Every structure is written in structure tokens, then in C-alpha cells.
Amino acid sequence: MKKVSLIIPCYNEEESLPFFYKEAKEVLSKINYDYELLFVNDGSKDETLSILKKYASEDEHVKYFSFSRNFGKEAAMYAGFCNAQGDYIAVMDADLQDPPSLLPEMLQILETGEYDSVATRRENREGEPKIRSWFARKFYQIINKISDADIVDGARDFRLMRKEMVDAIVSMSEYNRFSKGIFGWIGFKTYWMAYENVERVAGETKWNFWKLFKYAIDGIINFSLAPISIASWFGIFMTLCSFIALLIVIIRQLIFGDPVAGWASTICVIIFIGGIQLFCLGVIGQYIAKTYMETKHRPHFIVSDTNSEDAVKVK
Ligand code: UDP
Ligand code: MG
Description:
The structure is a single chain. The chain folds into 2 domains: 3-205 and 299-306, Spore Coat Polysaccharide Biosynthesis Protein SpsA, Chain A, CATH 3.90.550.10; 226-296. An 8-stranded mixed β-sheet has the order 7-5-6-4-1-2-3-8, sandwiched between helices. The protein is α/β, with parallel strands linked by helices. It is elongated. The mean pLDDT is 88. The protein has helices at 17-30, 48-58, 73-83, 103-111, 130-146, 163-171, 179-186, 209-223, 226-256, 263-296, and strands spanning 3-10, 34-41, 62-67, 88-91, 117-122, 155-162, 190-195, 303-306. The structure holds uridine-5'-diphosphate (UDP) and magnesium ion. Residues 9-11, 13, 42, 70, 72-73, 76, 93-95, 97, 205-207 line the site of uridine-5'-diphosphate.
């Protein structure tokens, strides 16, 4: 019998876990597959771990991996991928925003053998602040223009994949992970399924605007060198401009003499150019910082507690 692995990153999800567990069990008991539920406790500060331990003691399908601290959702997903043993593997949020009820249909599509993964995207962004939607849309437009990673607007991390595809993801062991980009970058044939946005069942989102903004910038820097070339093109452009300005000043001096004026505007130009230089340095700094973190080869996650005997605990 084929096996399905569900990876569920959990960070302070004590309120939504019971809902998730009940619904997931209901769906999984109806399908004709063996299954495992891999809960990754990402350093929660509430009762998440004890709830997971309770499930694990009652249900042999449940495995939990508890991190030594909060490593972030990307690390939690990576830990899940490293430990999943199923033929089909999916990542799902613990808050039922990724409805388990879609799984049977997703499995059917993969069974036809035509696709390697079934990915989901939100049809609408209802229930989300307008300004956030606007930034999100701009982010997708920009990143698709300037990078190789093909990222679909509204794509969620919820997707069901064949084991081969997950092996490819595991092989991309970069420290700065941006899964939406990685999924697109590795290729494979993907079927896109749209569904209406659902609100969280309980608890609160862990993402505020600032965190999302930083996540978006990370995504761009991880998958594109465009910001760095924009910086150098800007440098070339400014050099040309100043050269032309210099010519104008010299010619004016020769023809009209020097009426000494424009102290204020000079300062403005100096500050403006100084600002641009600092900005470009910052862009370059971002790439150097990423390279620095990559060269350290630090592990993505550290599992301090698990019920799985052959678990990958550090990677
Ligand atoms: N999550 C995690 N580590 C974190 C933040 C979030 O494992 O540092 C998990 C969280 O428990 C949830 C999923 O990632 O299962 C998505 O988080 P959330 O629902 O807060 O994000 P949203 O759906 O609002 O984008
Ligand atoms: Mg959510």
C-alpha cells in the first residue's frame, strides 16, 4: 500500500491542533493509503508539545519532532522533508488554512502519473488587509521578472509531491531557505489547484507586516542577482551624469566666467549621491551577509525530542 506523509509545522498551535488533528484523521481514514502525520514543533512556548505527545501515545501514525528552539517555518518544513518516508508528501499549516479535504482529489491527480506535484493557490485574498494584498501582488510581479524561480501569485506552501521531488528539495541544502522559490526552481510538472481563502480556525497568525516584508526581500535576494546589477547600473548612470554636468560647468565657466552660486544645491547633490552609495553598499552587504551565513554550514534545525527512532535530528 502506498503511503502519504503529512508534514505539519507547529508554532504555538495549542488552540488549532485539536481541530486540525480531528479533521485530518477523518480525511485520512477514508482514503485507501497508509499514512503518517509528522508534526514539527518549532520551539512552541505553549502546550503544543504535550498535545503532540498525547496524540503520539494514542496513535501510531503520529510522529513528532520537537526543535530545541524556534527555527522558523522554513526549517520546520525542511525537517519534515528530511524525515518523511511516504510516496506522497505534503506540507500543511496546523490552522486548517490548508484544508485536508483537498487531499483525496490531489492524490487522484498524482495517481494519473501525469504530474509530479499538486500545488494550491488562493483564488482571492479576502479577509486580508488591502495594503498587504497590494504588497503581496507587487512582490510576485517583481520576483517573477527578475529571477529564475517561477512563483505563482497566491501560491501556498500546501502541496502534495512525489518522493522524487522531495528528494530534490532536500538536496537543496542552502541555509537561507525560501520554499516558494525552491519549489519553482527545481521544476517538475505541477498541477495548480485554486481554492477559496479560508480563515484560521483558532489562534493567531505568526506573521506581521514587517516579518512578511523581510521574508519578501529575502526571497528576492535568494533567487535573483538583479538588485546587485541594478546597483552597478545605477553607479554607471550616475558617473555619466556627473561627467556631462562637469562638461557643462567647464564650458559655462569658459564662456560666462564664474558667478559663484549654488552652495545649497551642491550640498543636496552630495547628500543625494552619498545616500545612493550607502544604499548600494547595503544591497551588496545583503549578499555578502547571505554568503557569510552559507559558508558557516550551520544546521537548519536541531531536534531535541522525538518519538521516531531513525529520525534525522540535526541537518
Ligand atoms: N510556523 C512555524 N514556525 C514559525 C511560524 C509559523 O512552524 O516560526 C507554522 C505555524 O504553526 C503554522 C504555519 O507555520 O502551522 C503557518 O503559520 P501562520 O498560520 O501563522 O501563517 P499564515 O497562514 O498567517 O501565513
Ligand atoms: Mg495560517
